[in-house]
Each structure stands twice: as C-alpha cells, then as structure tokens.
Amino acid sequence: MKLRTSSPDETEIFGRRLGALLEPGDVVCLSGPLGAGKTCLARGILAGTGATGPVSSPTFVIVHEHPGRVPAYHIDAYRLECGDDAAALGLEEYLPGEGVAVVEWPENIPDFIPPDALWVRLDRLPGVGADDRDLEVSASGPRSERLLEELSHR
Ligand SMILES: Nc1ncnc2c1ncn2[C@@H]1O[C@H](COP(=O)(O)OP(=O)(O)OP(=O)(O)O)[C@@H](O)[C@H]1O
Ligand SMILES: [Mg+2]
Fold it and tell me: In terms of pTM, does the model score above 0.90?
C-alpha cells in the first residue's frame, strides 16, 4: 500500500487510523532516513491506540511506555548499535509484548523484530514540496497482512 502525505498533520492522521486497528502483540516498524517523519507517524499511531502522554523523540530513553486502550511501547533504536545493547535493555519483552510496539530504526535491531510485523517506509521526495512524504506500508506475516487489508479498506 502506498500513499503520499503533504503535511505532518496528514501523516499523523494516517497514523491514527492505523493505531485504532492495533491490538496487543502487534508490532509496527517505521523505517526511513533522519527527519522522514517516523516520530510524527508514531505520535499518530499512539494516539490511535488511545495512548496517553506526550510522544517525543527520546534523547536517552530507548523505550517509552504509554498506558491506554492497549498499552503501547514506543521504541527508538537509533542509538543502539548491536543486539547486545537491545538484549541488555530487555527489548525482547516488547517484541512482541503485552501491548502494541512501535519501533523507529528497526534496522538497528534486526534480530529483535518478530517475523510478523507491519512495516512503514517513509521517504522525502526529491524535487517535490518539502512537506511531501511517500509512505509505503507492507506486511510480513498473517496478522500484519490482515492489518494492511483493513487499513486499505478505509
Ligand atoms: N508530510 C510530513 N510528514 C511527517 N513529517 C513532516 C511532513 N512534512 C514535514 N514534516 C516535518 O518533518 C520532520 C519529521 O521529524 P520526525 O522527528 O518525525 O522524523 P524522524 O523520522 O522521527 O527522524 P529521526 O530519524 O531523527 O527520529 C518534522 O519536523 C515534521 O514537521
Ligand atoms: Mg524519530
């Protein structure tokens, strides 16, 4: 599934639609370069799950837990360099966990990403408006396929 957003608000609204579909144990991976809009999308997804509390780009904290309709874990693996770091933080407890996990920089912790996850790739568009982003959503297993289907029917 591909879509284009033209403002941070649009990206966040798409995230809300996705977040509303999520159930405990779901894992959503957000990939794309620095400044692509991963945290912006995560904010929408977490709002859609009913999560409370502000969603920020954590400077030192790798995992933010948000209580809500389902518990949500926002993980930013940007500063993690190897699986040892992730293991030391106990990340496997969240992937999957008792709530929804939203992961930025999943490429940094490949061994911790479950086989069935929903992936969103965000990209800036060269030569197009500075606020335009391409989003490509893909699934890697039965649960994420179902999510993708529900998402594309809305
Ligand atoms: N269509 C858009 N969708 C999302 N963000 C946008 C869009 N247009 C402009 N922006 C801006 O791009 C920036 C995206 O920042 P954000 O922190 O979400 O990126 P990120 O991918 O999480 O970066 P990092 O890799 O540093 O964590 C914000 O300043 C946001 O306002
Ligand atoms: Mg970010």
Answer: yes
